[in-house]
């Protein structure tokens, strides 16, 4: 196992870079010394330290049984903050990068029962790893993959030729078949057995639509699991509030337009952050008092309802003050 695992980072070499679809590339990472990489579970992601100094989170999309490599897949976003452009333009085969060990905020809850895997666009990345794992364990599942066009469908051939290809259904906007051009989410969830667990990944709009349809069909929130790729909506309440540090009693003002993590940093208290969008879970922190305005895509509805933890990079407060377990 790589030597600097204890430091929280891993050196890797880019062993392969492949064009998977329009504006989508995959990269495979291996340990420079050829040793096994740390194990991971389906749904895991890693932090990638990019040549332009940015750190971005990418889901692992290979089988968890593989210890010789990690595979990620990145869609180029021209209007983004530079992470995807760096992966496309600045990273090549043979390059050395630094990554984090895998961590998982989107695990399979019940791999022994029936699973429904629902992917929208680049959200296929953790979903395909789940499919690989479920198939290897002989579990019952189906995979539904919704994408705008065939040209933008990452891993199309891999899925079409997979040993579980009969469990995969593609919905593409240019399919030419009205039945397979757009998934009717309301009808989909009304026809699926409620004892299944559903795993949804894609853009915030896609995930929200799927969750709304499932809840409208009477699904239990405990059976719904999701992860979002994309920025959070900015059209939300940005009122000012206070946070209190439980360990010291210090009170810090969080003004409109500034995150809790930013306000803490300016007061001299640095907390670990990474994505800045409530996607990775790095900054999840305990809350001892107050009501949280959750804006992350990591916590489940049940976890949100407890108001005992929050993502400091994006979530805010419904109450005048939050007491943080720091």
From TrEMBL:
The keyword Metal-binding applies. The keyword Oxidoreductase applies. Keywords: 2Fe-2S, Flavoprotein, Iron, Iron-sulfur, Metal-binding, Oxidoreductase. GO terms for molecular function: oxidoreductase activity. It holds the Pfam family NAD_binding_1. Its EC number is 1.-.-.-. It comes from the Bacteria. Residues 7-109 form the FAD-binding FR-type domain. InterPro entries: 2Fe-2S_ferredoxin-like_sf, 2Fe-2S_ferredoxin-type, 2Fe2S_fd_BS, Beta-grasp_dom_sf, FAD-bd_FR_type, FNR_nucleotide-bd, MRET, OxRdtase_FAD/NAD-bd. Residues 241-326 form the 2Fe-2S ferredoxin-type domain. PROSITE patterns: 2FE2S_FER_1, 2FE2S_FER_2, FAD_FR. This is PDR/VanB family oxidoreductase. It comes from Achromobacter veterisilvae. The lineage of its organism: Bacteria, Pseudomonadati, Pseudomonadota, Betaproteobacteria, Burkholderiales.
């Amino acid at each position: 196992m790589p030597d600097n695992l204890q430091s929280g980072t891993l050196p890797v070499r880019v062993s392969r870079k492949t064009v998977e679809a329009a504006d989508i590339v995959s990269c495979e990472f291996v340990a420079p010394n050829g040793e096994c990489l740390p194990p991971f579970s389906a749904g895991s992601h890693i932090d990638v330290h990019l040549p332009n100094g940015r750190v971005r989170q990418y889901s692992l999309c290979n089988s968890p049984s593989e210890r010789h490599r990690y595979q990620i897949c990145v869609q180029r976003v021209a209007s983004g903050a530079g992470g995807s452009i760096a992966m496309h333009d600045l990273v090549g085969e043979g390059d050395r990068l630094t990554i984090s060990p895998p961590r998982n905020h989107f695990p399979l809850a019940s791999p022994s029962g029936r699973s429904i895997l629902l992917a929208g666009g680049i959200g296929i990345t953790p979903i395909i790893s789940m499919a690989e794992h479920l198939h290897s364990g002989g579990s019952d599942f189906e995979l539904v993959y919704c994408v705008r066009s065939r040209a933008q469908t990452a891993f199309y051939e891999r899925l079409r030729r997979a040993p579980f290809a009969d469990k995969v259904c593609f919905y593409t906007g240019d399919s030419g078949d009205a039945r397979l051009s757009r998934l009717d989410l309301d009808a989909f969830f009304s026809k699926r057995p409620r004892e299944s667990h559903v795993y949804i990944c894609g853009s915030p709009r896609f995930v929200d639509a799927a969750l709304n349809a499932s809840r409208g069909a009477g699904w239990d929130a405990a059976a719904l699991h999701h992860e979002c790729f994309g920025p959070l909506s900015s059209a939300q309440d940005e009122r000012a509030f206070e946070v209190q540090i439980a360990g010291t009693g210090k009170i810090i003002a969080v003004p409109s337009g500034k995150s809790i993590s930013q306000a803490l940093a300016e007061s001299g208290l640095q907390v670990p952050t990474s994505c800045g969008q409530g996607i990775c879970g790095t900054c999840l922190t305990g809350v001892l008092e107050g009501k949280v305005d959750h804006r992350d895509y990591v916590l489940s509805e049940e976890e949100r309802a407890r108001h005992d933890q929050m993502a400091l990079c994006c979530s805010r407060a419904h109450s005048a003050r939050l007491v943080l377990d720091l």
